[in-house]
Amino acid sequence: MPAFATWHEYEQRQWLKPATYQAYVQQKLSKALAWATKEVPYYRDLALGSNLTHYPVLDKKQIWNSFDELQARERPAGGAYQISSGGSTGHRVHVLVDRSERTARLASTWRGDCFPGQSGEPPILPWSGTMYFWGASFLSKGSWQRVSKPLAAWIFNRHVLTSYTLTPELVQRYHAALIHRNPQRIIGYASLLRRYAELATELKLKPPRVRKVIASAEQLDPDAAMTIMNYFQAPLRQRYGCREAGDIAHQCEYGNWHLHSDHIYREVLRADGTIASQGEGRLLLTKLNNRVMPLVRYDIEDLVYLGGKPCPCGRALPVMSKLSGRVAAQLSCPDGRRVSSLAVAESLRNIPVREFRLIQEDEHHCRWLLLPAAGLTPDLVDKAHAKLDRLIGGGLSVQVELVDEIPPLPSGKRMSIICRLLN
Asked: CA-CA to 406 of 20 to 30 Å: which in 134, 292, 297, 387?
């Protein structure tokens, strides 16, 4: 199976000396650019050569408008597969990937998921047992997919607990499955893991014995992290990615983010329009394995801070010190500042609210949907409102609404902020 061989290569490569690792990444980048300028009309017509700094930033609108021109004229063996973004920014994008890209994605995911939960522990191998709390089914359409996906789930002892709506009855059933399966690793949407932990705690269900819990797909605020760790009694780590690119980074046993830069080359677009290999700004990705539709300097509309102190884990994978989240998942203040969902969550610290969502429709008005928990009083709502007003400053009025439900997006994710101005 090619994925096993590729995963083994990725496992070994992360322990290379930094200079050797960087030389390998630069070699892959040169090959990817050479292929793009030779085989892809979009890049061939620009005649940009092998210098990455000469390439323009590629955004989602350009992918829509130039979908055919971004495809290689010579198709790699194994065909092409279409992958669509979740549309959480308001813009759904379709990209093509080839077999090599799919294998590299899987190898990167396995490598990160295999990071141990704590220092001094052995890695958690792919087939050691994983339970997913997911918002969408992993099972694709088509007869072959209906056979191959369950077969892969059996081989890797991987099981998906579809968790769009968690009820006490469903939590009890899932708890029985966790105890029966005895997985070493639990992976799930951050909001679903939190809700499961809340309900399981209320039901006084004994936590399963797992080596690590991985939060994915959504940003994790401190209160949610504490709720999850308090119930599962296991290290909590995060992974970060997008459908167009696959997994981009994982947290290691020391809690530091490591970028899979031997799969995806990364840069940052600073606020002043300059490009850098590290620092704070919008994340730009260049795909190193995909030959059917190579994307160069693709802006996925996420804000990050690349760089940081070397990690004591010893991996050569570069460090990402901060993930600020989606550009469109931030409030746009009248004074030009951007406020992230994590900052808004701080205004709700010690306030009994299960979930919130801020919806900003224009420059001066937004709605703050609050899903109450037991103990929420009008005085506490006013206190939270005052904290948020101080955070965002004047000029942006906030209408508070107590609701019975905050539905997930079609992708199953639960975005805390939706800013129409930044879509």
From this structure: 387
